[in-house]
Amino acid sequence: MLQITDKAKENALDPLWRMPFRPLFLGAAIWSCVALALWLLTLLGQGSAVLRVSPQWHAHEMLFGFAGAVVVGFVCTASQTWTGLRSPSGRALVGLSSCWLLARLGYLIWAVPLWLPVAAELAFFAGAAWAVGRRVIAVRQWRNLFLIPALLAFAGLSAWHALAQTQSHSVAVLALLLVTSMVLVFGGRVIPFFTARRFGETARAKWTWLEFAGHGLCIALLLAVALSLPKAWAGCAALVLGLIQILRCARWRVALIWREPMLWSLHIGYWSLVCGLLLLGVAWCGLLPVNMFLLESAAIHTMAVGGIGSVILSMICRVTLGHTGRSPMQPPSATALAFVLLLAAVLARVLLAPAMVAYWLSTALWLLGYGIFLWRYGPMLLAPRTDGQPG
């Protein structure tokens, strides 16, 4: 249990700098909209010679700028709950957030030397690894120790992707699979727990062998891609991992989730990740007589938009409500609409590609979905808790 020794000092902080989720969720949501809008304008022939907007930039900013910020905001906030030790706040949080913002601006503007955003982003992820790691180690919470190498891997991949000339796509896929693996780990912990608790039921006991098999296959898939092993090997790992997740999901209680947007959004997002893994496995194993590039792109965007994008939107809504003194099961109006818009975005991107309508329609739907988050949840992130407690 967290002990606040100086409540007055805590409450003297500007609300934005009291907990990591506040600036990082807000910044991630805003930046995802800015980055996608700039990317769409470039595709429509309205790009600027001043801005470093390219396919590589688009992938980098959605993986490391958007998803990376949410991952850091989530784990740094959750580490306080796990360990009872205060999460970064005040000047430490300003410094961490400034590194993230400096990286975003540096990667965007051509005139900025590339070493500057690379160094800033390395400092951002390494700082997060230090902040989470020292708290986890202090209380000997070994089950979350994997976050240290995971965050350091984010740091290394972000620099590798920014500096790579011919391998940027492979590095982006590897980063996507790293985010996917983290969502599978944490989603597998919290989604069935949230579901069972909402309906006053007891979550089914986990099958240890199933959990370890899933974690092991995540590692195997990441290593296969990182080591550039034959595509078929990585494809087999993706297929088996997807099948393992289907078995895992089949044990979750879902009969009543459809009346609760805060639950069905998490489940559908998780299922989208599973579908993406299966599509990726089919593409890499060459199991269908179709264009592998298009099938791989469909798999990637099923995971990125339908899986990671949807799960992130649902989780940042839930965390924002819970950590600002509100009930996660009483979301503001239009929250369910935001979730539906994200699901429509992935359908548009996957089913209509490569037609141009797929890009502008999916981008517009994303902007609307995350725009609703900024409209309804942004003020919560900027205001003190409703119950007057620190945080």
From TrEMBL:
Highest taxon above the source species: Bacteria
InterPro entries reported in the protein's UniProt record: NnrS
Key words of the record: Membrane, Transmembrane, Transmembrane helix
Coiled-coil regions listed: none
Transmembrane parts of this sequence: 21-42, 62-85, 92-109, 115-133, 145-164, 170-195, 207-226, 232-250, 270-294, 300-321, 333-351, 357-375
The keyword Transferase belongs to this UniProt entry's keyword annotation: no
Protein name: NnrS family protein
Organism encoding this protein: Microbulbifer harenosus
